[in-house]
Each structure stands twice: as C-alpha cells, then as structure tokens.
Automatic annotation (TrEMBL):
CDD domains found in the cross-reference section: NAT_SF
PANTHER family: AMINOALKYLPHOSPHONATE N-ACETYLTRANSFERASE-RELATED-RELATED
Domain of life: Bacteria
Protein name per Swiss-Prot or TrEMBL: GNAT superfamily N-acetyltransferase
GO MF entry, a single one: acyltransferase activity, transferring groups other than amino-acyl groups
Transmembrane feature ranges: none
Pfam families: Acetyltransf_1
Protein source organism: Deinobacterium chartae
Residues annotated as domain N-acetyltransferase: 9-165, 179-338
UniProt keyword Transferase, yes or no: yes
Key words, A-Z: Acyltransferase, Transferase
C-alpha cells in the first residue's frame, strides 16, 4: 500500500480515474438508488473547483486501485481559520485493517502544518462503520441533519395553489435567477447568503461567515463549466427594493430525475409573513411545469430547524436518512494516533 496526495484541481488523469471508481463504490453503499456521475463529468468538476477552495486529496493505493481516500479542505477566507472540512472513506472490502487510521494520520499532520485545530466530519445512518470509526477516534456528534425526499407525483397541487395565492404579493415581488447570477446583484445576493448564519448549528464550534461577491463569481464559473443547472427564487420588498429571501434548486441535466433543494433563507425581520412558503411553492410550481423528467427532490435540514421542516413536511417531504456532523479537535486525534 502507498499513499499519494494532490490538490483536487491538479490531479493526474490516473488519479481522477481511480478516485472516481472508489466514489462509485462508496456512493452505491450510501445511496444505492441514485445514479453516479461519470468520470468525464467529475473530472471537469474537479479541475474547475473555485481557486478559493483549497482541497487536498489523499489516495491509498493497492494493486493499482484506490482503496481509500481522505479529503481536507477550507475556503481561503478570514473566518473559521481554526477549521478543516474533512472526509475519510475506505472501500468496504478493505476496512478494519488500519487504512482509516493511516489516512487520519496524514490529515492530522496536514492540519498541524496549517495550524488548523479542529476537523469537521460527517456520517450517514445507513453506513454504520463511519459512526463507529468517528466514535473510536474521539470525534463528538454536533449537529444531526434529516435528509428528506419529495416524490413529485405525490405533490398536492391544491396546496401549492393555496400557498401561491396566500403569498404577500402586495408588499413583495417574486422572481427567479436562472443560471449564473447577474453581475449587478452579486453583492445583494452575497448578503442573502448571510442569512444562512442564522440556521441551527447544534454543538458545532463554527463562526459566522460573510460570503463575498468574488466567492459567488468563482462558484458560478465552476457551475457553468460542469453544466450544472440552478434556479434561485427570490423575494424583493417593493417599498425598499431590498432582496429579503431566496431558495435554491440545482440538478445536472444528465441526471434530471433527482433535483437538489439547496439553501432557503428569509432575513429574520421578514419572517412570519409567509415568504418561505411562497418561495418554496413558486419553485415547486416551476418544476412541475418545466421539468417533466424530474421525479423527486432531495433536501437536508437540521433536525432542530422546526420552521423549515414544517414547510417541507407540509409539502410532502419524507425523511430518507440521517446525517450527523461531527467535530474532532486535532489534539484529540493526535492523542488517538499516539495512543
Ligand atoms: C470510516 C472508515 C473510513 C474507517 O476505515 P477503516 O480502514 O475501516 O478504519 P481502521 O481500520 O483504520 O480503524 C480505525 C479505528 O476505528 C475502529 N473502527 C473502524 N470501523 C469500525 C467499526 N465498524 N466498528 C467498530 N470500530 C471500528 C477500528 O477498530 C480502529 O480502532 P483501533 O485504533 O482501536 O484499532 C470506513 O468505515 C468507511 O469508509 N466508512 C464509510 C465512509 C464514512 O462514513 N466515513 C466517516 C468519516 S468521514
């Protein structure tokens, strides 16, 4: 066994091919009913990851095959300089032989070199090995998320009509950004993303982030390169001309059956007026009208996010799996490795 490492934008074709094969295996374990992206699409995505995102990958090789990988990354922004987002995966046929531990040692040394003292990790309920590993190495569960699915055939069209009619249209205008964001509104859109700082974080020790227009621009460039599609519905206050809420939906046209419902946010001072329901209903109505190939929408919410879950459950989203976000101090990981 040997380990190689590269920045995600700078892999060789052979690294990408091996990584993609391993990802197919891991994905089949996690979400067996969802198709994987082909290597060609993943390769474009990796090469066009925004420059702002510093993501390093380690591959554990055996007989020319990648049997394990680790990833550690951070956005190059002022906030959360203590954090490193990480991921560990070992091929099911190669588990319980110390590969996870070996990959952890690489990432911990990297974190120490960078001076980042805390790792973020995640596990899913249908892959219990991940949770057992994280408990053993001393990570603590910090935020539980519910991944839910809405089968579009089950959507109650009457409910959508009622929510659309009840929208506060006298005071707010509803619209869509389709594809890359318009340059003239980038700064306003960046401020909309600040709303996400108010979403529940459980016990995660993370700071607020201030999204920059430059980060949105880089994300949009990589989106465009990969062919990913995105609709964002927004609400604009008529009196002030201020954007006050939004909801995102994205998908890849090669796999149009499942759409991904991304972030939704309404500024705290505009909550309680039906904007969240209005935005969600408008998005869903557009999906029903314009995307006949779509069969379902998947989304993730903190289990403690009662207002968002109430809207999603009323729309017909049903729990599919649980995802746990964990946090691990680098010092604790070092104690495990040295123990
Ligand atoms: C998590 C994962 C990477 C572990 O890989 P691995 O190569 O099997 O891990 P190791 O053999 O190095 O085990 C490291 C330690 O965790 C323990 N451990 C690992 N899997 C375990 C399990 N299923 N049950 C109990 N303990 C387990 C090992 O016993 C070992 O403890 P030790 O140091 O006392 O000997 C692998 O199970 C996996 O890919 N899971 C799916 C992806 C995932 O959920 N990752 C979560 C972290 S981001």
């Amino acid at each position: 066994m040997h380990i190689s490492s590269f920045l995600i934008q700078e892999g060789r074709d052979s690294d990408y091919a091996a990584l993609s094969d391993l990802m197919d295996v891991m994905r089949a374990e996690r979400v067996p009913d969802e198709p994987s992206a082909p290597l060609s699409e993943r390769q474009v995505a990796w090469r066009s990851v925004p420059e702002l995102y510093r993501i390093r990958t380690w591959l554990a090789w055996e007989d020319g095959q990648a049997v394990g990988r680790a990833e550690a990354g951070y956005p190059d922004v002022p906030e959360n300089a203590h954090l490193l987002h990480t991921l560990f995966e070992v091929h099911p046929a190669h588990r319980r032989r110390g590969l996870g531990r070996t990959l952890l040692a690489e990432v911990v040394t990297y974190a120490e070199t960078l001076g980042r003292r805390s790792l973020l990790l995640s596990s899913v309920s249908n892959v219990p090995d991940g949770e057992a590993f994280l408990q053993r190495i001393g990570a603590r569960p910090a935020l539980e998320m519910r991944v839910s699915r809405l089968e579009l055939a089950d959507v109650d069209a009457g409910l959508l009509d009622r929510w659309l009619e009840a929208g506060p249209a006298a005071d707010f205008e509803l619209g869509f950004w389709t594809g890359v964001y318009p340059d003239e509104h980038l700064e306003d859109i960046a401020r909309l993303y600040d709303i996400l700082n108010t979403a529940p974080r459980g016990e995660l020790e993370v700071e607020d982030v201030r999204t920059s227009a430059e980060e949105l621009r880089q994300r949009d460039r990589s989106f465009a390169a990969t062919g990913q599609r995105r609709w964002v519905a927004y609400a604009l206050e008529r009196a002030s001309g201020r954007f006050v809420g939004f909801t995102e939906l994205d998908w890849h046209p090669a796999r149009p059956g499942t759409l991904s419902q991304g972030a939704t946010g309404v500024f705290p001072e505009f909550r309680g007026r039906g904007l969240g329901r209005w935005l969600k209903a408008a998005m869903l109505r557009r999906v029903m009208l314009e995307l006949p190939e779509a069969r379902r929408i998947e989304t993730g919410n903190a289990q403690s996010n009662a207002p968002m879950l109430a809207i999603n459950v009323a729309l017909g989203f049903r729990p599919h799996r649980t995802l746990i976000n964990w946090q691990l101090e680098v010092e604790q990981a070092r104690r495990y490795l040295d123990g």
